[in-house]
């Protein structure tokens, strides 16, 4: 019985690592492109009146990344043969890659236009992920709703910044 419990703990730890490590990697990759470009490049852009102050982004993204890791962990724990599980996981990791790539396209390349080329499909993939997760695990799906709302807002913000600075 102890061996089964030990194997169960090892399996849970692996699933947790599969959920947390890619999310943390995306966060770190994004920050590597963002932080060095906040000043003077981003600070010098014309921004719309609805642009949040810089201090808002850190707590929002930290919360969103925690929710993403929790959501994907819940889906990873589901039986492998569940219909739509593989699709949901593929969509999740695609949106995560697009999320990290956005920082490099917008901040790293100093290009709101490239950011737009990334964030529009990113929003669509986030919404698709929510829909697939909804069929698999309602809590996981609801954990991604704040992400969908924020990426929707970020899409509008990205478009406004691009429009004001072209």
Task: Write structural notes for this entry.
80% of the residues lie in helices and 0% in strands. The protein is an all-alpha fold and 166 residues long. It has one domain: Ferritin. The radius of gyration is 18 Å and the shape is elongated. 28% of the residues are buried.
Largest sheet data:
none
Stretches where pLDDT is under 50 for at least 5 consecutive residues are none
Per DSSP, what share of the residues sits in E-state strands of 2 or more residues? Answer: under 5%
The rounded distance between the terminal residues' Cα atoms is 66 Å
Under the CATH scheme, which architecture would be assigned? Up-down Bundle
Q: Radius of gyration from the CA trace?
A: 18 Å
- CATH class wording: Mainly Alpha
Number of helices: 5
Q: Which structural class best describes the helix and strand composition?
A: mainly alpha
Tell me, briefly, the overall form. Answer: elongated
Counting DSSP E segments of at least 2 residues, the number of strands comes to 0
